[in-house]
Each structure stands twice: as structure tokens, then as C-alpha cells.
Amino acid sequence: MNKKLLRREVLKACSGVATGGLVGCFTSTVQSEERRSPNERPRVGVVGNGGIARSHARGLKRLADIVAIADVDRQHLEQYNAEYAAGKAQQFSDYRDLIDAPGIDAIFVCTPDHWHVKIAIDAMRAGKDVYCEKPATLTIDEGRTLGRVIKETGRVLQVGTQQRSSPKFQTAVALAHSQRLGKMKRVTVAIGSGPKGPTFDTSSPPSNLNWNMWQGQTPSVNYITQRCHGNFRWWYEYSGGKMTDWGAHHVDIAQWAIAPDLPGPELIELVHAEHPVAFENGVPTVSNTYNTATSFKVRCVFADGVEMLIVNDAKDLGFDNGIMFESDGGRYFVNRGKLTGSPIEDLAKNPLPEDLFTKLRKGQDKLSHRENFFACCDSRDTPISDAESHCRHLNTCHLANIAVRLGRSLKWDATKQQVIGDEQANGFQKRMQRKGFEVV
Ligand SMILES: NC(=O)c1ccc[n+]([C@@H]2O[C@H](COP(=O)([O-])OP(=O)(O)OC[C@H]3O[C@@H](n4cnc5c(N)ncnc54)[C@H](O)[C@@H]3O)[C@@H](O)[C@H]2O)c1
Fold this sequence. Notes:
nine-stranded mixed sheet, Rossmann fold, 2 domains, binds nicotinamide-adenine-dinucleotide, single chain, 16 helices
């Protein structure tokens, strides 16, 4: 504890230094002592050892070594070490100790959403590059903090929106950018429904779990099993339901395709929303069951008139997960399983110019999402899922959720990042954060 406090004091002292000073004060020493040569395998620390961390462990096998892991659940920590690091990774119950440990090049943040930015910025301030799971932020305001710290520290941050590195999704985006189908009119994004739960009982947290630390910045409440592992997605306290869970993927791709140069939508029109519990002033009135939306339709309109419909399912169009692009010249569909439509079939005879793809990849090689991250750690280039564009697109999801929670449409000044004429809605751009866990 004393060591952590001391470290916090050092960081505080450093953060008083002008931009760049922070890097000089803390990071550069770490970097010069520890930076591996590009020929060596990166040494990775994984924070949060649940579902997605397992899939990263499998993918990292051929790319990097997992040398350190951290989790607030001792059972997850030990199982992960045994299964994915042959028991050889250094184990930490507090991620700050992992960040302080020597010999780690990059950190994978695989915790629930409410911890992403806090851990990412602590890691970057300690000189680490970060692969941060999606959705990177819990609120619009966290995106501003994340952007500021990336600038201050000069660290590489890749968001875990791996669809951006998929040739299927890149083709869908490049086709929109080619404008060969004329004006894009509408894109429909279907992202599924969250569950409606029964009421759950509170209980004592299991002895292997540090429930206080798991809750982090969020209000401290009695433990309910279903608030925690995996199911945290269905509570606005920790996440945003399907709107941010899958919206972080599909809305990201859709907005990348139709509005890459616009700061965001101008109108977020609430067409329909249902929650599993009653809401008052945007806040659920019941605390013992899931509270994120089970059904929704939100129409986002951009300055050039193109509209994006975000729905839980698009039964009228025949799908419940994926993106349908509609333009004067035809329509096409993409999800993880398929890329279809006559404009896609036409690509066999008339392929898209390669430079459209090169631009999407920011001039970098064709690589998997994790490879792109490590390549950027070496080159210091900006990864394909950079925080700025991710947050710009994710903010559309956050705004849609604010509209859904308040039960009304919003006008958004995307340049000033303000909801126009609605102070209550603007209040949802940030949240009260528990003392000691503030994201600053
Ligand atoms: N990119 C993708 O396709 C994809 C897929 C699944 C999940 N995700 C994202 O990954 C994140 C995690 O999801 P999951 O399904 O793996 O969740 P999970 O609940 O299975 O795992 C999260 C782990 O983080 C641990 N944790 C919580 N707070 C911590 C802290 N302060 N320090 C260290 N460990 C902490 C938990 O104990 C748990 O073991 C979510 O943000 C989710 O959206 C991304």
C-alpha cells in the first residue's frame, strides 16, 4: 500500500510537469532500460483474466509471451496462469503492481468496461503500450481523458475492435468510400438484445474475489453474482448493454464507412426503446436485476443527410446482427459470417483500387489486429483502431444510450461535444467516480 501510495505521489509530481515532462519524468527511464529489440518477442502483461483474455492468450501464442497477469479474482488468475502461461507468469492481485513490474513491454486491458480507461492511462503513464479492449470508454468524458494521456505520453494504444483488421469489413468500408454506388442513403446496424433477468439475490462475495476492487469507480453496492463476471454488460453501472458491447464493433464500422470525416451525428432520434425495469431521470429504479435496454431503435443523422439506424434487430431486412448499407447504386450486407449483395458480386469483375485499403490501414501492412498492434509498438505508428476515431464512433453509441435512458431525442454539437439545449443529457457525459478510483 505504501509503495502504491509512493508511486501515486511520484505520478502526481510528474503530472505537474508540462506535456512531455511526464514522459521524461517517468517513462523514458523505463523505456530505455526495458525496451526490447524488434527481433525479440514482446513481453505482455494481461490485466483481467476472464473470457476475452482467454481468446487473446490463444492468439498471442505465436506473437508474444505472457509474462505477467493480474486479476481481482484469485481463481481466474490461477486458472489462467495454469492454462495459458504454463504457470510461469508473474501473478498480481492488483494491476498497479503488474504495471510497476520490470520486463513488460505492453499491457492488454481485458477487464470490464468501467476499468478500461483507468488501467490504460496508468499503464501509459508508466511507459507501457496498451491494447485496450472495446468499448474503450464507459462515458464520453473518459474518451477525452484517454486522448489527452495518449498525447501526453506518446504511447501506442490499439482498441480491441478487431473487425477493423478484417478484410470483409475493410471491403465493406472501402466500397462505401469508393463512392461507386453513388450517395449512401442509409446504414442499418443490428446489434442484438440484452437479456431481461429475474430478480437476483444479494450475497457475500466469494472469498476469491475482491469485490471492492472489481467495482472500481462505480457505486459500491451489495454483491450479486450476475453483476460480475460476463454479465456486467447488462448493467449501466459497468457497461452499456448491447449498444456499446456490439455497437463498439458494428457502429464503429458503419460510421467509418459513411462518415469518416465528420465529427459525429447531428441528431440522435429516439424511435423506440424498452428497458427491463422502470427508469427515472435516466436512472434505473430497481437494483437487483439487469437494467440495460432489451429493445431499441435509434436514428442518427449526419450533416450530409446520411442516416444510421441502430436497432436490436432488423427483422424487416432479415438479420439481427450485421450492417446493411443502402445507396442509390444498390445495397450490401456485412457481418462476421458474410459479405453479400450485388455490389459485392460486382467486385469480382471490377475490384476496388488497392489504395482505398492502404488508406484504411493507415499505409501499414495487411496484418491481424494483434500483429498491427505489435508492429505499431515497434514503428511508433498509430494503430488501425486508434483511440480518437474509436471514441468518435463509440460516442454515437454513448449518445444513443443517453437518448434511450432519458427517453428522448438529442441534438448534438459534435465539434463542441455538447448536447444542444439539454443539460440533463449533458450530465450523462460523465459520472460520479468513487474516491480513490477516479479516472483523471
Ligand atoms: N473484442 C471482442 O470481440 C471482445 C469479446 C469479448 C469481450 N470483449 C471485451 O472484453 C472485456 C472483458 O469482457 P469478458 O467477457 O472477458 O469479461 P469477464 O468478466 O469474463 O472477464 C473480466 C475479468 O476482469 C477481471 N477484473 C475486473 N476488474 C479488474 C481489475 N480492476 N483488475 C484486474 N482484473 C479485473 C475480472 O475478475 C474478470 O476475470 C469487456 O470490455 C468486453 O467488452 C471484447
